[in-house]
Design goal:
Shape: globular
Radius of gyration: 27 Å
CATH architecture of the largest domain: Roll
Number of helices: 8
Order of helices and strands: HHEEHEEEEHEEHHHH
CATH class of the largest domain: Alpha Beta
Number of strands: 8
Length: 246
């Protein structure tokens, strides 16, 4: 249960949500003075690409650069905020929200999601009006930028699927258990791992380098090319043939 003493009156909560709406409208429509008016005189914006901007003049200058240095970016852009968590804190209120940025590309007439993430803002009431004391933009760029995302555990194929583990001989070639059935299962497990985790140059090259010459003839996909069914079939075929020879 939330602490009732930390709740703001309904009118204040609605005013804070309207502050977010005014800010989004001002950003999307190029209303420079409207953006600046959403901040306290000593407020700051912590923006991912421009760093921490303290004071209204620095914020004004930053948005001038965003709008006029990249004119094709802003027409058709929408900043959306939702799922507000508003808690009383000190003289003001701590406000957390999810955000998403939708973009209509005016040149190609296509729609796409430009970015997603969270806001962690601090709002204060000045002269009876709620404004931002701080705006912290936390965009999601990778797994590490999402605080609650679980960190993946790298497991070897044999450990994941119950087959015997691969080991390397003196020539740094992969060999497996003496049992042919278990060798085949280990090769299939390696293929399953590649399917579940699309290969990159960084991940595949060391493995291909340590395999026999036949396996090294297969084409190593790049990080951006993904994986094709033909390439996967060749990996499984070469792996099975290598296992049968050991």
């Amino acid at each position: 249960m939330s602490d009732p003493s930390l709740k703001l009156p309904v009118e204040d909560r609605l005013d804070i949500q309207e502050l977010f709406a005014r800010y989004a409208w001002a950003i999307n429509t190029g209303d420079l003075e409207g953006v600046v008016a959403c901040f306290a005189e000593d407020g700051y914006l912590d923006h991912l690409w421009q760093g921490k901007l303290q004071g209204r003049e620095n914020i004004r200058r930053a948005f001038q650069e965003l709008w006029y240095d990249r004119p094709s970016w802003w027409p058709g852009r929408q900043h959306l905020a939702n799922h507000f968590l508003i808690t009383r804190e000190g003289e003001g209120a701590r406000v957390k929200a999810f955000f998403s940025i939708l973009q209509f590309n005016v040149e190609y007439r296509t729609n796409f999601v430009f970015g997603v993430g969270t806001w962690d803002n601090y709002c204060v009431k000045r002269d009876g009006v709620w404004v931002f004391k701080s705006v912290c933009v936390k965009a999601w760029r990778d797994r590490q930028s999402i605080p609650w995302a679980p960190r993946p555990k790298r497991r070897r194929p044999a450990e994941e699927y119950g087959a015997s583990a691969f080991v390397c001989d003196t020539d740094n070639r992969f060999v497996s258990d003496a049992n042919p059935a278990r060798r085949m299962l280990s090769c299939v497990c390696s293929g399953l791992q590649l399917l579940s985790e699309p290969p990159s140059t960084m991940m595949v090259c060391p493995v291909m380098k340590s395999l026999p010459g036949d396996a090294r003839k297969t084409t190593v996909p790049t990080r951006s090319s993904g994986i094709s069914s033909r390439w996967m079939a060749r990996v499984l075929f070469v792996g099975a043939r290598t296992a049968s020879r050991n």
